[in-house]
Automatic annotation (TrEMBL):
Gene3D superfamilies attached to this UniProt entry: Ribonuclease Z/Hydroxyacylglutathione hydrolase-like (3.60.15.10)
Gene Ontology MF annotations: hydrolase activity
The name this protein goes by in its record: MBL fold metallo-hydrolase
Keyword Hydrolase among UniProt keywords: yes
Residue ranges of coiled coil: none
Residues making up the signal peptide according to the UniProt record: none
Keywords for the protein's UniProt record, in alphabetical order: Hydrolase
Superkingdom as given in the UniProt entry: Bacteria
Pfam families: Lactamase_B
Record organism: Lentzea alba
């Protein structure tokens, strides 16, 4: 049995960040808010990062990059961004920090993460499936030839991790229905399947039918990806995510799929486990997680381990279900539709 890679989907609260380790290579995919990413890297003994891939300009995906680049603890070799025209103080701060970092280190900056880019060494590949040419060329607020309004979410970079030619995980950031339609129109449908899906937009509505949970979007992405595990990278108390109707429809479409969150949604338990309870609130893996100190974790930071024979998703499903039964017996992922 040969280890190929480890993908950690970090609990950063409301936001996205993931770290892929493959041999000596380290890739960061989005950076969340605050310093959770930095704490995770330090705890894992990682100080060299081959590349940082930023899916789009939303602060809950990019803000942590500012501290990462400003720190002289980490040797970051390259940063690939997916810029946006909308005004944002965080994006302006990141642009300034990118210049300071580049002037100091000479690191590579690529100003358009786009469809067709492939990164990786050996049997592990990082495939960028979106945005395609049309979305890359259009700014947020513009309309495409079909009259669809483009948002920053439409232009999200969609990334699939493969190991030994097996599709491991799909990370679609905040991809909305317009972006998904462009993906299929660009001939990428057969490249979307993966064992693990980090669900878009933290489990929020992602389409034009927002008030109804955007059923066509949910069915489309679940059918295209056909995941056995769906992870929601959410923050407890942030926007009440994942939405109950989103979880319910995924369970209806893919009843055998495992569903789990990084943090314990208020929709699953109005009260977090009591701090004095020594069993109910412990996170399930010894990994840095934003919610661990306040017992906000559900799955906490998730770890996907790939070797040449199988793909394992942690935390262990039985242990995770035990935690849910103890702390959130009416959790969204357990309710009968």
């Amino acid at each position: 049995m040969t280890s190929l890679c480890t993908l950690d989907v970090l609990d950063v609260g409301h936001g996205n960040a993931a770290v892929l380790q493959a041999g000596d290579s380290v890739t960061v995919i989005d950076a969340g808010l605050g310093v959770t990413l930095i704490k995770f890297l330090e705890a894992e003994g990682i100080n060299r990062i081959d590349r940082v891939l930023l899916s789009h300009s939303d602060r809950d995906h990019v803000a942590g990059t500012i501290n990462l680049l400003a720190s002289e603890t980490f040797d970051v070799r390259a940063v690939y961004v997916n810029p946006d025209s909308k005004p944002s103080s965080i994006w302006a701060s990141l642009a300034w920090e990118l210049k300071q970092w580049h002037d100091r280190t000479g690191g590579l900056i690529e100003l358009q993460l786009r469809q067709g880019m492939v990164f990786g060494e050996g049997p592990v590949r990082i495939n960028v499936l979106a945005p395609g040419i049309q979305l890359s060329a259009l700014a947020a607020g513009a309309k495409d030839k079909a009259g669809r309004t483009i948002t920053a979410n439409s232009r999200s970079a969609v990334i699939r991790i493969d190991a030994a030619d097996k599709p491991v995980a799909l990370l679609p950031a905040d991809l909305d229905d317009v972006g998904l339609e462009h993906l299929t129109e660009d001939g990428q449908s057969d490249k979307l399947n993966a064992q693990v899906l980090v669900y878009p937009h933290h489990g929020g509505a992602s389409g034009r039918g927002r008030g109804e949970g955007s059923s066509p979007y949910i069915r489309s992405i679940i059918d295209l990806v056909s995941p056995s595990t769906v992870i929601f990278s959410n923050g407890r108390g942030s926007y009440d995510l994942p939405r109950a109707e989103v979880v319910a429809q995924i369970r209806e479409i893919a009843p055998s799929a495992r569903l789990g969150c990084t943090q314990l949604s208020r929709g699953c338990a109005t009260e977090a486990p009591a701090l004095e309870d020594e069993t109910a609130g412990q996170h399930l893996l010894p990994l840095v997680a934003h919610g661990s100190s306040a017992r906000k974790c559900c799955g906490g930071t998730w770890r996907i381990v790939c070797d040449d024979t199988r793909i394992s998703v942690l935390p262990d499903e039985a242990a995770h279900k035990g935690y849910i039964a103890a702390c959130a017996p009416t959790a969204l992922c357990q309710r009968q539709n």
